[in-house]
Amino acid sequence: MATVVKEWEKEIKKKFKQIEPSLNEKTRRIWVATEALSLGRGGISLIHRFTGISRPTIYAGIEELSKKKKKKISTDKRIRKAGGGAKKISEKYPDILPALENLVEPTAKGDPMSTLRWSSKSLRRLSNALKIQGFSVGHNVVGDLLKELNYSLQLNRKEQEGSSVSREERDAQFMHINATAGQFLQERCPVLSVDTKKKEIIGNYKNGGREYKKAGQPEEVNVHDFPGKEGKVVPYGVYDIGKNKGWVSVGMSSDTSTFAVNAIRSWWSEMGVKEYGQISKLMITADCGGSNGYRVRLWKWELQKLANELNAEIHVLHFPPGTSKWNKIEHKMFSYITQNWRGKPLITKETVVNLICNTTTTKGLEIKAQLDGRAYETGVEVDDEAFSAICITHDDFRGNWNYKISPMKNVKSS
């Protein structure tokens, strides 16, 4: 008999080892109960000894099998009967949830001088803080409690536009830009969105994003991102909203107003004149700051030169401070350029131009680019006399953001 029992033990242990990882509490009870009943008298003790499963668990499984035979077993998928299992920590410590919330939101719920107000609220820090208050819980339990309180890890979200402009002013300017652009497009006049893309380091440097390569063979780049002899480039973009076409002047000097307006001039000579021929006016939307800022005198002085050359009115509408992300060029052109060169080191200036020119979308975006090797002087000032000569007309609505520059009569651009 002893030999038979050893054979049983060997066989059952083998089966249990194979099947145990796939079992939950309920199926484990049913399995050990079935094996115990198959062994007959003394089967419960043997299965308990072979598997380590407690006798009460085996008895519970037998009872469930008995109910199933009588068709009284519940059809739900519950593993334990209602009320089974360990009690929730929040039931064991009724005050733990308010205490935890006071730690997570100290300025709103608790003491603004709490030490956690000025430190990261990791699970371990929260666990230690709760232990000081008499709640002996580990950091994993703290994570469960935070879920119970509907907390989760959150990133900062850019929403606030700044205190200098009210929401009403911002929305009114957006509506004004939209209405004016709609009128220009209806009249088949150019509507341009302009901006400077961030400066890019030229050389074998890491570029954000990932690109498909053979497994284990990533492209190797320099460890440090210190600019080398190739320096940086400044891409200034001009996006034609009506035509879904763009132009990028890749500057190798400084991002000045002269450079910005020259990029618009290049767009006209390379793309605009072919699309529109002779025009009487064009519209430009731009951010409030940078080389095309509404307070920059040189920007308006250079636009005056361009208006004289084109013999056309240039209507400029600026986005309110802090709202540059709404400028069309950001998400209609620059975002696709960034996607196109993701994971590709910008080895040379020509690489930048080629990657920009090969940027396309399913909606037919077309971009042309060109290197601008001119050296643009910084710190150029426009004196009062020259500035007062600009033929500028400010709109009745927010004239500082919305204005028109008309060509000077009988004056040639310098």
How would you explain this protein's 3D organization?
- With 414 residues, the protein is α/β, with parallel strands linked by helices.
- It folds into three domains: 2-69; 89-148; 167-207 and 226-405, 2-Layer Sandwich (Nucleotidyltransferase, domain 5).
- The protein contains 15 helices and nine strands.
- The protein has helices at residues 2-19, 25-39, 43-51, 55-69, 89-92, 96-104, 106-109, 123-132, 139-148, 167-186, 257-276, 297-310, 328-340, 349-357, 384-388; strands at 191-196, 200-201, 232-240, 245-251, 281-286, 313-318, 366-372, 392-394, 402-405.
- Strands 1, 2, 3, 4, 5, 6, 7, 8 and 9 form a nine-stranded mixed β-sheet that branches.
- A hairpin with a 7-residue loop joins strand 8 and strand 9 (402-405).
- Helix 2 crosses helix 4 and helix 11 (257-276) runs parallel beside helix 12 (297-310).
- The radius of gyration is 36 Å and the shape is elongated.
Annotation keywords:
414 residues, alpha/beta, Nucleotidyltransferase, domain 5, nine-stranded mixed beta sheet, 9 strands, 12% strand
Q: Please identify the top-level CATH class of the largest domain.
A: Alpha Beta
CATH topology of the largest domain: Nucleotidyltransferase, domain 5
User: What class would the helix/strand composition place it in?
Assistant: alpha/beta
Mean pLDDT: 84
